[in-house]
């Protein structure tokens, strides 16, 4: 190969990598456009990617949420174990919601589709989406085993050479409270993989590629090199941190010892609390996903996600701890613990690179699953049956040079739904949804503010919440002298301020509203060093009370 | 307006740096370019009008029409120079603008900034009141609270007010009553209502749009008033129209009430220009590709109409990042804009990949080859290193380029890091920017629910004709047209725009329980509203009406637009519309979803003056082959081979003339590259028609 031909080949491989990322982005956009569940189409709780025939992820859509990202990356290998590439046929689509083979709870469907070119299988497309209902107890922590949490779909074909597996769809329709949405979403997931496969074949035609192996090798090499170069910049040592979650029956402690090696970062979770009897347990793939995300967005945020770029981040999760839940432990709301992992990782990394790490935030989403009608009130029901969930967030942690973000999802990548849209799909009324003053952890840079939400049923009818909230007994911590964010609060809007449990199924009685106060993010640095103009602005905007400004920030005027 | 080409018509497009003007009369055209005067833009306009009239040897009174587009509203939002604005909103929801969608637009960047609301919290004031999703009153409007707020806002020196209540688009009574109270107490305060500015579901988008309208309204109303006075004083007696972001024209009065509808009028002009060119050639599926100095814009044009949309983001804080701007829900021409232009800077990322843009060298210092101190390689440098430009003839010879500076910059910042020569680095940069533009075009088509197969590209702007053929190859398009007059394309587009107005309203319907009477009532009232606005400017020209329903399967989140007949609907129509939806859906997504009911979210009614019939250009016989004016050694980006490409002067080509690629057709403002395997034929209109031969 002449020097110039070699140079051209090098440039073309870069172009092909870019194209592959565009292909999976088309795949994700097709899902968003065709999905039925609000969780996908409004909230963006999804992910999409392309894999080689060994089940290694080559590229992943930028659109998507971290919990799916890395756990979906592991799942394709499990599909291949059951259905090796050589038995797959054009028009086949395979599906599962196995929490241990896919993304950690039954509410996530993962579909894998082979892509064929000239009659030969060349790659696999996978995607994951969070659907609204899969039967069972519904989204919530109450199950005592995964069997109570909903319909369990082993890895099966949902389409066999383009023909729908009607037996499968019969089971699906019968097993869900929202059969139309569920079936529609499965069609959407298949359509989106088809779109990806079509584009992949066009790309391979254009570049006259017989297989993805050479491109894969280049992607993996470049990603490994870039990731290792970033790891090499970190001081070698072992860093320890811990964080507490409210838990269900007892508080949960998460412990990590992070060792930076020359060529990898290894996190050992020894000392972490044991398993819960309820659905807050975290399957190991989900633990790896969020722990890895927390490290990666500090250490190597620019390296695209693929098999090689995730490989140097290794997790040692002891058996019997809550981050390594075995089958059939309940795992429905694994996010409420799992989403604290980036804060835990940053607790370690803060000792290595303090200038690149945030204070702790609200972190775990505050998604109230709401149910009403006969499944709550029986024959006394005053509303139609409904089952909805909205995605909401408290404040994020302060950043070294910037305030935290108010009411914004982190580490999750989801969006919330408009109140007007939610009120159109279910008989509920949101009486308030606004920032929560004095909730941001104080600091030179402060945390983001949490928010207050007050929700009733139409006509103030009885309804139920399946609570999955955290950071009520354990508010987000500040760093470097910054203050704690305000703790969360769950209760009723009555004059006594009736408190509800942070986890579990509870009735909101007729005439009452559910009141949620979402945590604020932790602060960073000494509050007395904060720019007084910024304090003044928060006071004028009614976000920080004058008393707090004086006492905490040493605010003089006003 | 286009039906009346015998009279002289003037278009004025105020951009960030230049104000472009074009007069057309019959098939003659005169143009002028003057510097924009940001502190008082009407001054630049008046100066430009004087210059272009002089060029055309016309008196102000000779003009029959003036059409104006401006980026003033956009700039006021980007630079935060609008009015001190307040918002009255439903108690419990004062932070809708701050909470936005509670999301980060970049998952891995811990340091992102989110766009700050145009109204700070102190001036976002809660009013006790509440409607449900059907418009039923759950809590009556607290009128005393409104009065107390007005008193406070007066003390605070507020200059403009937005009112937006939850579900106010279903039942505007509370918003209207609150506005009446404000007007009683403070008649001169401008007030924008969400139920008028953007009467659609989704409170964040609706309030954001309403607040943005209020924010720019005093400024725009004042500017438009001064402009009109100035033009009248200068002797112009003709009607004055404003270009809307949706591609239609409107009167000063309507523009002053809803100035937010003017935001993207410049790019809209470019898209209309493309649509007109498409019509001249009878191309019904087009991808418009406009590449300039800092950005490239791609727009889909079906049946000679640029794709319409109702969502737009202004003032993105993460450069070109979706989700990082303030959402506006107004009629706009849908286009994707990416940071890829001649000035876009190339660098190498940590994976050893070439990255191009979105940072731009701008006009100053500009690309390295300008010799004005720029040291980072830009796309123009890469094109120069490939031999695509003749250095001493760039920009008509007004800006001689320095190839050695390009090579040095490419070698230092790209080649050296990858073990590539400067020339091969240049190839890598151009391939990457072409790939980025092609990917943006493809993803845009998917997001729009449209395909890109079988489209024809219309390329313009300084970079469009240079990069066009390779972008076509990457998208899989086999034909490309390069029109003439592309330098002032937006202004020319203004002259092709109809007087038009679009009204969008939400009215929830399911086919299982279709309320024919309610729908017909709504459509009739929307039609009357749009007709009234248009008739003010149509001067008796015939008008036409289009109606659209935005539909989806119950439970889905994204709608498909389905055309409705522009008359009262019958039961038979309803069944037909339902069937049409299934077939449209299947066209996009291969299989319909069994057993799902279909819902309608909203309706759009557009009334516009009938566009002049354009006779598709007659075919011309083959002309004499042109003679090359010179040859250049050019490196082909697909193969890396350097060969001699003949260069032809566009001015010397006659209709019917053929040129086989590889070749370059040069003109003052740009060059059209005809890649290997492509042929170019000049059509009867003087446009360059490029076709890729079957491989």
From TrEMBL, chain A:
GO terms for cellular component: cytosol. Residues 11-527 form the Hydantoinase B/oxoprolinase domain. GO terms for biological process: glutathione metabolic process. InterPro entries: Hydantoinase_B, Oxoprolinase-like. GO terms for molecular function: 5-oxoprolinase (ATP-hydrolyzing) activity. Pfam families: Hydantoinase_B. This is Hydantoinase B/oxoprolinase family protein. It comes from Neoroseomonas eburnea. The lineage of its organism: Bacteria, Pseudomonadati, Pseudomonadota, Alphaproteobacteria, Acetobacterales.
From TrEMBL, chain B:
Pfam families: Hydant_A_C, Hydant_A_N, Hydantoinase_A. Residues 206-502 form the Hydantoinase A/oxoprolinase domain. GO terms for molecular function: 5-oxoprolinase (ATP-hydrolyzing) activity. GO terms for cellular component: cytosol. InterPro entries: ACX-like_C (IPR049517), ATPase_NBD (IPR043129), Hydant_A_N (IPR008040), Hydantoinase_A (IPR002821), Oxoprolinase-like (IPR045079). Residues 534-690 form the Acetophenone carboxylase-like C-terminal domain. Residues 9-185 form the Hydantoinase/oxoprolinase N-terminal domain. GO terms for biological process: glutathione metabolic process. This is Hydantoinase/oxoprolinase family protein.
